[in-house]
Amino acid sequence: MPDLVSLPLPTLKRLPRYLALLREKGLRGEGWISSEAMGRQLGLTAIQVRKDLALTGAPASPRRGFRVEETARLLGELVGVNGLTEVFLIGAGPRGEAVCRDGSLGRRGFKVAAVFDPSPEGAAELVCGLRVLPLAELPALAHRMRVRLALLAVGESKFPGCAKLAAEAGIRGLVNLSGESLEEVEGLVILNEDIGFQLASVKRELEKRLRPPVGRASARIGIAPGPAGPAEAEDGPQEGEAR
Known about the structure:
It is a single chain. Helix content is 44%, strand content 14%. It is an alpha/beta fold. It folds into two domains: 7-81, Winged helix-like DNA-binding domain superfamily/Winged helix DNA-binding domain (Arc Repressor Mutant, subunit A), CATH 1.10.10; 86-196, Rossmann fold. Strand 5 (126-127) and strand 6 form a beta hairpin. Helix 1 crosses helix 4 (68-81). The longest helix has 19 residues, at 9-27. The termini are far apart. Residues 228-243 have low confidence and may be disordered.
C-alpha cells in the first residue's frame, strides 16, 4: 500500500470521487467498470483514471477495467488505514460552523471527529455537534486517533504557527479555508482554498462564453473585409478583362 504523502496532490483530491463512484456501482450490483466509463462520469480522461488508480496499486484488466468491489475495498482501506475518513476541524468560528453545514463531507465519506480552537472559551459550546477543544489537545488526540487530515478554518494571523503545530502532531494533509496564505511546511500537503481565485476563474469562463465569435462581431460593427492578398490579386480578374 502506498504512502499517501508520496501521492501527487491532484490524485489525493480525486480518491474520494473514485471511491464514491465505485461504491455506487457496487450497490447496483455491477462487477466491473472501465477507465473510460469512470472518466466519463467524473469528467476525467481514461488515461488519468488509469494513472491515478495505478498509483494506489489497484489491479486492472486490459479488457474489462477494474473490479468494482475489489477496487472499492482497496481504496477504502487506503483511506481508512491512513486516517482520511475522520478529519479534524481547526477553528470554531463562522468558517468552522459553515464547514459543519457542508453536506459534501459526508457524501465523500468524511466526518469531523474533533473541533479545536485557539480560544475555545470564546467559541460556541458545540460545533458539528462536538465540544470545542483547546488547540493544545490536538497532538495527543491526533496520535491516539491516527487522524492525518485536517481542515483549517482559522488564519495564521489569529494563531501563528497552527499549520506547523498540525504537522508536528502527525497531520499530513491540510485544507486551508482561512483565506490567508500558508507557507510550506515540511511533510504537510497544503491545499489553499481561494474563493477569490475561483470567482475570477468563473468570471473569465463566463466572459469567454458570452464573447461573440470574431466573424460575427466584425459583421455587426460594419468592419469591411481587408484588401485582397497577393494571391487573390493575381488570380482575380484584372482591369479590362471580362467579369
